Amino acid sequence: MPRPNDTLSNFELMVMLAVIRLGDNAYGVPIAEELERRRGKLVRIGSVYAALDRLGAKGFVDSELGESTAERGGRAKRYFRLTGKGLGEVQETRRTLVELWTGLPKVQGRKA
Amino acid sequence: MTENQLPPKFACWLLRHLGSQNSETMLGDMNEQFVNGKSRSWFWQEVGVAIAISTYSAARLNRSSIMKRAIVSTIVLLGVFALGYWTARSTLVVHEEMPGPGVGAEILIKDKGASYLVGMHSAVLPIREMTQGLLAVPGVKAVAPIVTGMDSGFTVVYGIDPQSFNAVSGGFKIVQGRMFEKPNEALIDEWQQSEMKVKVGDRVEFLKMDFTISGVVEQGKGARIFIPLQTFQEKLKREGLAALFYVKLNSGVTTKQTIDRIRAAFADDTKEILDLNELASLMSSN
Fold first, then answer.
1. A47, B53: Cβ pair inside 8 Å?
2. Does the ipTM surpass 0.90?
């Protein structure tokens, strides 16, 4: 059984999936935009980095500095990618969710 | 590059000194979005949230320094939100840009997570589905999707579709020139014209885009500057989406009853449906 601090919150899972979707372009701005577009809700950059910090501490993502540009005020981008452990966690979470959803009675309204 | 085209220096300083180890990277991301059209108020909000999250995270990891950090951060955040409140009230009260009465709509619909303040909404609502759904509700006469933003100086800009906006508002009273017809044309109201000292045909910059002023209108339609909806959507990369919807009702229909019908028609809890007369009284009370 995984340790409690290795479990994923909904938002952390979404951040990891966004990182996978973005591939080589997974840095703060596109991650926040991807989440905002998919969720249909405002996503703050601070929230994204807080989640990435936690994921980094759990060993699910790592990062490296990229190029700096003028439009960033000369500051470097930080690109994120999933580690093998992170990818395994995403697959395990997906498997569990699929199992839980399978055969579930149709959910209607606000009550199951 | 002018001072207004740079992000707020003090906000950068605060995040650098009170934020997490990622502050410089975050500032780079915020800078990138600011250069691509986000407002100064957006920048301040991002910094405020980043500092709050950083303080909370530090509290969980290092209790010994938390009191000092929390006190400083609380003072700073109070200052940031007081500044935001003051600028918002300046925008709403001094510039008379409160949504509602002038626009001619009875109801405003926005995403639940978006601010009440005009010019501070994120465009996330799908126009086609929302418009079709709203027009099918008994009592709804017209619907106007709007994209909002703030130009430098906290001036509210609306991205509008003239046909639907006129159907809700009854149309602009154009005092000079004409309605915009091209993607890079804009309308301004008389107050904005007086502030900018410009005339019809002049080239101006709004939201870091170049526009030609096609007309000047009487003030009181919710914003100072009006640009084509599609132009604004493309700028924000929000094609097909709106930040809010103004809804005009048929005469004799009660607002409360129609709001209940709209809630029933959109059986989800992600949208906030506001009675604009109630909102007007809320905004104008001290």
1. yes
2. no
